[in-house]
Structure formats: C-alpha cells, structure tokens
Write a structure and sequence with these properties.
Layout lengths: L4 H30 L5 H16 L1 H5 L3 H15 L2 E5 L5 E4 L20 E3 L5 E8 L5 E7 L5 H47 L15 H39 L1
Helix pairs in contact: 1-5, 5-6
C-alpha cells in the first residue's frame, strides 16, 4: 500500500504530525494537572474566607488571645478551613487544627504568589495568605482535592483539544500531501522521461522541487542531451558511410 515514494513521504509526515500533537496533549495534560485551574473553586473559597476575616481585623485585634483562638475555631467550623496564625518571624501562634501535621512557612519566603504548600508528611495544602495590620500572617488552608485524570481530560482538556487538534491535523495532512507531491512529482517525471530515452526526441524534465531534486533533474537533463547528441552522431556517421559507399559504387 505504501510502496511508492509519495505515499511513504505522506505517511512519514502524517506520523510526525500525529506524534507532535500527542506530545502537545501530554504536555498540556501535565500542565493542567499541576496548574491551579483545577482547584480554582477551592482557591476562590479560601480567598473569600480570607477577605471576610481580613475585613474584621479591627474587631479581631481587640480580642484577647483566648477570644481570638475561639473566634478562629468557630471560623474553622463554619467555613471548613484550617486557619493558622503566624508571627512576624513566621512562627505558629495558633493553629485551629494543631492535631494535624504542622505547616511551617520558610523563614524568608514570600508565599503570597504561590497557592500550595506541603506539610511535613508531604501532604499538599491549598492556601491563601494575608498579612494583618499587626504584622502577623493569617493562612487559610484546606487539603488539595484529588483530581481524577479522566475527569480532567473530559472536563478541561478534551473538548478544546479535539476541536483545535482536528482542524490542525486536517490542515497539516493537506500540507503534508502537498509537500509529498512537491518532492515526488519531479522524480516521477524523471522516471517517465527515462522510459522514453530510446526515443529520438525524449523531452527534458521541468526543473522543480527542493534543491536536491532540482540538481538531480538538471543532471538528468544534461545526461539526456548527451545521449541524444551521441545518438545523433551515430546516425550521422552511419549516414555518411552509406553515402560514401553509394558514391564509390557509382
């Protein structure tokens, strides 16, 4: 089925295109699984809780340490989030879930731009961090929800990828078909001309295609001209001998 040069070139381009699209899909999948877009609903909830608590900084600053802990514990129960209060030196002042694995901030790291952190057991937490007016930091955290790969593919990746990938694949295959013809057609014309070589006036092959094929076509045309000149010289020689023989007989 793929015995001709044109079909093999087309198949090679098609496999290359499909492989490239597959690599792109894998990269997008990895990016999607590591990207916070999958957890945007959870992050939005954390930021909403952070906003509510930050808006009440004035009230919280007037509470005694015991009352502040009670208020944070009630917020934990109401919003189902873990609240951790850090001092200015990033030491834990109060943790509403102190019975769980501790979460520590790097001494000099600014985690405001990040969205996840690991505890000492390697468990990943999504969080939102804000600095209070007294210099302390308040972290609102929740365990990162597990995301099934198939669900991520179905909901986040497959619909746009299938649409864009299908269009890209169709256009690429058409382009591959054109490139295969661009390379194979000059070679096919040379094959046809080579089969006509015994003819007295074999047509020259039009020069087209990539540089290597053009050079081959030029060399083939030069060879054709030399063969035709040689054949013409032989015919002239035979004609001269015949003419001389007839003249001698006379």
């Amino acid at each position: 089925m793929f015995s001709s040069l044109r079909s093999r070139l087309w198949l090679s381009y098609a496999l290359l295109i499909v492989t490239a699209l597959g690599v792109v899909m894998v990269v997008l999948l990895i990016y999607l699984l590591r990207n916070p877009l999958l957890y945007r609903q959870t992050l939005s909830r954390l930021r909403a809780v952070e906003t509510v608590i930050s808006a009440r900084q004035g009230e919280l600053s007037e509470l005694s340490p015991r009352e502040l802990k009670n208020a944070m514990t009630r917020a934990d129960s109401s919003f189902d989030v873990r609240l951790i209060l850090f001092s200015g030196s990033n030491q834990v002042v109060f943790d509403t879930r102190a019975e769980e694995t501790p979460i520590f901030l790097p001494p000099s790291g600014n985690l405001r731009s990040k969205t996840s952190i690991r505890d000492d057991e390697g468990r990943v937490w999504l969080y939102s961090l804000s600095r209070l007016s007294n210099g302390q930091r308040l972290m609102v955290a929740t365990p990162r929800p597990s995301v099934k790969i198939l669900a991520a593919l179905r909901d986040e990746l497959m619909p746009p990828f299938l649409g864009a990938g299908g269009i890209a694949l169709l256009l690429s295959l058409l382009l591959a078909f054109g490139m295969a013809r661009w390379i194979a057609d000059p070679l096919q014309r040379m094959l046809t001309a080579a089969r006509e070589m015994p003819a007295e006036q074999a047509a020259t092959v039009p020069v087209s295609g990539p540089q290597e094929v053009r050079e081959l076509t030029n060399a083939f045309n030069e060879m054709t001209m030399r063969v035709q000149n040689t054949q013409q010289s032989q015919r002239d020689f035979v004609a001269n001998i015949s003419h001389a023989s007839r003249a001698g007989d006379l």
